[in-house]
UniProtKB/TrEMBL annotation:
The lineage of its organism: Eukaryota, Metazoa, Ecdysozoa, Arthropoda, Hexapoda. Residues 25-145 form the Mitochondrial outer membrane transport complex Sam37/metaxin N-terminal domain. Residues 173-236 form the Metaxin glutathione S-transferase domain. Its main location: mitochondrion. It comes from Psylliodes chrysocephalus. This is Uncharacterized protein.
Length: 296
């Protein structure tokens, strides 16, 4: 295959045993992997790649496709169709279920990545700042946060309380997960022994909650209520991503935890010292050992 005929996929880098940190990139990588597309995966973490459009981007024969839907639509035209073996009724159901997952799980992952302040400030911002070159790291952290905010406002235009929005989207996500679990049952995948586009989309929106160490991660406990969904994620990992390293390339949580512990210890010492000094001075003053004139 000539260089011109090669498929190139540009994605955000992977971490925490995920093929990518970003769900749309995860979907694109997994779809191409399962269908056997001969892709060369390039990560969006250098000046050479940072001038491209926002990942995922598929490049083939001087053509560029800039998001997951466009990528899949093009791959189907060149005979890489993940759902080609499904019966017509199964294909219709698969499409309906995939749209359900997209509409119910995308909001909750966008919220947890960029709206939940601790997750955004303590993890996602730091990760993207370290994984992307300057000034693209500043641009994309702002871009993702603004995009998530606009997305939430489009879903709930009259609601300004983020806690209420969080409750709405989590409730919708729970209903969706319950439906997925019931549909999956004891099968390996939703339609037989091989993933379909439904499995791909579900993996991309569930796996981050199971793997990324968010400071606040209520969805991890929620997803764990359905072991068959968790096992599907593990099955995809062992089959298609068996060699992804655990841990993080860009964040050192042990060092961060140690630093936080040291900060807490020093703060505690300062507070205790001030408190003890105040008590001693108060005691001395009440007993007459110190006078107002001496304190002045």
């Amino acid at each position: 295959m000539s260089d011109k005929d090669k498929f190139q996929l540009l994605v955000f880098d992977g971490d925490f045993s995920l093929p990518s940190i970003e769900p749309e990139s995860i979907k694109s990588i997994l779809y191409c992997t399962v269908t056997g597309v001969p892709i060369e995966v390039n990560t969006f973490n250098s000046y050479k790649t940072a001038f491209n459009k926002v990942p995922p981007v598929l490049i083939h024969k001087n053509l560029r496709f800039k998001d997951y839907e466009q990528i899949v639509a093009y791959l189907k035209t060149v005979n890489f169709n993940l759902d080609s073996e499904l019966e017509p009724l199964e294909r219709s159901e698969c499409l309906a279920m995939t749209n359900l997952v997209q509409s119910k799980l995308k909001p909750v992952i966008e919220f947890n990545y960029w709206i939940e302040h601790r997750n955004s400030n303590e993890l996602m911002n730091i990760w993207f700042m370290r994984s992307l070159p300057i000034p693209f790291n500043y641009y994309y952290t702002r871009h993702f946060r603004d995009r998530a905010t606009d997305f939430m406002e489009s879903l709930y235009p009259s609601e300004t309380d983020t806690e209420i929005v969080k409750e709405y989207i989590q409730r919708a996500a729970i209903d969706c997960l319950s439906s997925l679990s019931a549909r999956l049952g004891t099968e390996d995948y939703f339609y037989g022994k091989k993933p379909t586009s439904l499995d791909v989309t579900m993996y991309a929106y569930i796996a981050p909650f199971l793997k990324i160490p968010f400071p606040l991660n209520e969805m991890n406990n929620v997803i764990s209520m359905w072991p068959n969904l968790v096992n599907l994620v593990k099955r995809i990992d062992s089959t298609y991503f068996p060699e992804l390293p655990k841990g993080s390339k860009y964040l050192k949580f042990e060092d961060q935890a140690k630093t936080n512990d040291d900060d807490v210890s020093y703060a505690a010492i300062v507070i205790l010292t001030i408190s003890a000094t105040t008590l001693m001075l108060g005691f001395a003053y009440t007993r007459g050992y110190l006078t107002g004139k001496m304190l002045n």
